Amino acid sequence: MSSKLATLLIAAAIVALSASPAVAASEFAQPGAIEGTVTASPGKTPVEGVEVCASASVEGEWFTQCEESKGNGHYEVIGLPEALYRVQFKSGEGGKDLATQYYRNTTNPNAAKLIQIDERETVTNIDAEMQPKASIFSASWGTDNAVGCPSGAQGLDNIPVTFSWFIRRSSIQTADFRIVRSDGSVAKPTCALQFPPNERDEAQTVNLIGDFGDSVSGPTPKAIRVVGTLEGKPPGADGWGQIGRLPKIGVDPISDGPYIVDAWTLTPSIYRGDQNRCATGKAFLRVMWSNGLTAYPTGEEVGAAVSASYRALYKLPNGKTVAVAPLAVADLHDHESSFNADNMHDLCLPKLPRRARLTGVTIAADLIQDPNGDPNLAQKFKP
Predict the structure, then answer these.
(1) So what's the pLDDT on residue 25?
(2) Under DSSP, is residue 122 helix (H, G, I), strand (E, B) or coil?
(3) What CA–CA distance (Å, rounded) separates 329 from 306?
(4) Beta bridge partners of 263
(5) pLDDT-based confidence at 249, cuts 50/70/90?
(6) Do residues 209 and 191 make contact, with C-beta atoms less than 8 angstroms apart?
(7) Per-residue pLDDT tens over the stretch 130-174
(8) CA of 142: how far to CAs of 258, 285, 327, in Å?
(9) Which of 90, 337, 342, 350 is the most exposed, having the fewest neighbouring CB atoms within 10 Å of its CB?
(10) Taking 50 as the threshold, does the pLDDT of residue 246 lie above it?
(11) What's this model's pTM, rounded to 2 decimal places?
């Protein structure tokens, strides 16, 4: 090869490289990473096997990189080109009952907080506290021919349905529910309301009202199916997501008394603005029951006897369990008539020991009744 030809080839190569600086830069760019810890609520237990995926548009193409969390809940996703990423947490074999969520604390991908990854940068503390998937806790026949709908229809039955998630009020439609009767027939509710529980932090209950059967001559309501497109979110989460269909659940007979279905800590961000919140205490515990609650046998608002009987059980880091008596019970007098009392009690607790973990709620029998006048059995609830 002549020296003149060699010089021309080298010059051409230099021109070709200088004409594509983006390609040359990407070949030598040092990728970034994210890392964090995945836990499950309640208790913040580390979760193994959660698939953590970071996704972004990189140079016009969609890029996704995934890794699984380890036994201690820690994960690290490496090899991330510089971009703005959405991070998804999807439960695998280690957490089949955990809902898919996105950073930060939402089940709605459109509400995810995006993470900027720069060259050679590792962004830490991209953590997730995963919540159980949405489920129905209870469906209890409350009254027979005793309630009505805002439309004016009267002489109807009601079945409060309690959920593990908050339900978005604007997504509730009567067509979302089916009530299966004991004779095999199927009914739809005349109305579906978030009432009597009607505050922003009481959105776990949907009250179905309609002609569901007859407690004396039958048929009676036997099961509830959710068939529509309800939207919801775990308490405290950001952004509403679609729940979809849920497994059918049996309806408690009208003669059964109320029982505790859920208990969880009210955080300041959730409790803020509650009109019937605790006026005393340092920690606040929401106790949700299957049905509306009044004092047994008077049907009046609950008082000192109920407050004196409640105990919240907490496990301490040293393994000891303590029973904490509430200073007071709040979320009372929600409406003018005690007949419309909702199914929530807030326990106003003193300051709890550091890292105490809720393990149960107890209350004695024959203190609380449902709208049908049926008293409660002794409760030993475990979250």
Answers:
(1) 39
(2) strand
(3) 8
(4) 287
(5) very high
(6) yes
(7) 989 999 999 999 999 999 999 999 999 999 999 999 999 999 999
(8) 9, 25, 30
(9) 337
(10) yes
(11) 0.85
Helices and strands in the chain, H and E counts: 4, 32
Q: What value, to the nearest 5°, has the Cα angle with vertex 23 and ends 21 and 28?
A: 95
Adjacent-strand bridge partners of 323? 313
Of 325, 327, 324, 306, residue with least CA distance to 314 = 324
**Residue 314: strand, helix, or coil:** strand
Residue holding tokens 């991908």?
109
Angle formed at CA 361 by CA 94 and CA 279, multiple of 5 degrees = 115
pLDDT digits (tens, 9 = 90+) for 287-330: 999 999 999 999 999 999 999 999 999 999 999 999 999 999 99
Residue found by looking up tokens 């497109």 in the block: 229
Peptide bond just before 219 cis, omega within 30 deg:
yes
Q: 134, 154 in Cβ contact below 8 A? A: no
Q: Cis link prior to 189 (omega < 30° from 0)?
A: no
Amino acid at 155: G
Average pLDDT score, the chain: 91
Residue reference for tokens 């036997």:
222
End-to-end, the C-alpha distance of the chain in Å comes to: 82
What own/partner pairs with CB < 8 Å and gap ≥ 24 does 253-256 have? 253/141, 253/220, 254/141, 254/142, 254/143, 254/144, 254/215, 254/220, 254/372, 254/374, 255/372, 255/374, 256/140, 256/374
Task: Note whether 178 and 186 are within 8 A (CB).
Answer: yes
**Are β-strands 221-226 and 231-233 bridged in parallel, bridged antiparallel, or unpaired?**
unpaired
Backbone angles phi, psi at 309, to 5 degrees: -90, -30
